[in-house]
Amino acid sequence: MRRSRTVLDRTALAVVGLVFLLGGSWLALTGAPWATRLPSWWPEPGARAVLVDAAGLADLRSTGWWTPVVMAASITATALLALWCVRLLRAGARPSIPLPAPGGTLRTRALEDVMTRHAVGIGGVTRCRTRVLVQRERLQVRLHVRLQPDVTPAAVLPALAELAGRTESSLTPYSVRTQVRFSTRSHRRPHVR
Predict the structure, then answer these.
(1) What CATH number did the domain enclosing 177 receive?
(2) Measured between alpha carbons, how far is 121 from 128 in angstroms, rounded to an integer?
(3) Quick one: which of 81, 99, 153, 162 is 20 to 30 A from 63 by CA?
(4) pLDDT digits over 159-170, tens only?
(5) How far is CA 67 from the centre of its chain?
(6) How wide is the angle at C-alpha 148 spanned by C-alphas 179 and 128, nearest 5°?
């Protein structure tokens, strides 16, 4: 599921980028009179029209708020984009768990997928999201389980405890701590209008 979503995201970004590249190249390289095809309400550009002319730019620069606002906006945008890129890069690199067998490792994403599949197979569970955090010799497993509307957490908790026990026994040299968070979708009530 995640791999297909990643491929879909990258394909969509590539298509959008290619469309913009081709459109920009067409506008830059051809002498197409695109200005004549603008909507009627759009102001007509002159032969040497710019977005902000020299006089308007000088007026903006002479005000006291222009430089601090532009600098603050630029720094904020740069910092947010840098944090976003770091988060994307960190999300892709997930740690592996070394196993006692020589050369054996277990990817945390594979463990998450297996636990999610087993949890969804429990009666009364509609969806599950699993996250495995590695801290030296300890693993922390977080399960966010979405229940069907008529199911109580007490009905599925023994099966989830058994799943956590099997996970702990299969990762013997590590101490595994499992946290389960339940949520449910409430009954839909008919609305009277």
Answers:
(1) 3.30.300.30
(2) 10
(3) 81
(4) 999 999 998 888
(5) 34
(6) 40
